[in-house]
Amino acid sequence: MCMDIKAITYSHDNRSTHLSDVSAYIQEGAITTIIGPNGCGKSTLLGIMSQHYRPQSGRVLLDGKELSLLKPRELAQKLAVVHQQQEAPGDTTVEKLVRFGRMPYRRLWRTDNDEDEVAVEWALHAAGIDHKRSSILAHLSGGERQRAWIAMALAQRTQLLFLDEPTTYLDLYHQLELLELVRTLNRESGLTIVMVLHDMNQAIRYSDHIIIMKEGRIVGEGTPKSVMTEEMILNTYQVKVAVKSDAQSGLYMVPVGL
């Protein structure tokens, strides 16, 4: 399932422009990562792509169909989002949370059916959180909670998964653990994944395609090797880096100064 973003302009307050003439293409079956300085419009763009915000101008097409024409239930069967900050009642168990992912398929007064049970079990297993199904969310570690929210999104059984800064508040071990999960979901389950990240080296390592933003515009788009250059990072972040590559680490960046 691909997404075509065409000449999007958006403002939160109808005065200052947060996105200006943004166009991009989300390739089916790939991991696309959006990076850029704070306030550049990364999460806003993801919000436009998930119909959370309506643009002032431009269009978003999902497999050739206008995103704005999809009913909420229909969209939720095609696209799942894990936001940066998620909230649920403190006594919610992991399994109960994951079952909320089946809401787009439920009709009034209908209880879970076999298809729902299969989806929930698959989501718990795919996110590696099935052993915590009876645990209260408040008792989980940060990494476990993030996996639980991802499992809820997976229970929607969509082909598109959006992750808004999924590694925020996690230590390095749990950041890498989560990104390994993202790559596994992409490679083994065929999910098309779009995520917003801050860490450039993590974006290089875990992405097939990178979109670089600055001041509400896309300033670079392509494979990690093609866009993550010393000149691009200097122009985007005002930080000097050395781009290196070796057999063990692959491509990576080292900050060298301002």
List keywords for this structure.
258 residues; alpha/beta; Rossmann fold; 2 domains; 6-stranded mixed sheet; 4-stranded antiparallel sheet; 9 helices
Could you walk me through the main structural features you see in this protein, from its secondary elements to its overall organization?
It is a single chain. This protein is α/β, with parallel strands linked by helices and 258 residues long. It folds into two domains: 1-76 and 162-173 and 186-258, P-loop containing nucleotide triphosphate hydrolases (Rossmann fold, 3-Layer(aba) Sandwich), CATH 3.40.50; 79-157, no CATH class. The protein contains nine helices and twelve strands. It has helices at 42-49, 72-76, 94-99, 114-126, 142-155, 172-189, 200-206, 224-227, 230-237, and strands at residues 3-10, 19-26, 31-35, 57-62, 65-66, 79-82, 160-164, 192-196, 209-214, 217-222, 240-246, 250-257. A six-stranded mixed beta sheet has the order 6-7-8-3-9-10, with helices on both faces. Strands 2-1-4-5 form a four-stranded antiparallel beta sheet, covered by helices on one side. It has a two-stranded antiparallel sheet with strand order 11-12. Strand 4 and strand 5 form a beta hairpin. Helix 4 runs antiparallel to helix 5 (142-155) and helix 5 (142-155) runs parallel beside helix 6 (172-189). The N and C termini lie far apart (40 Å).
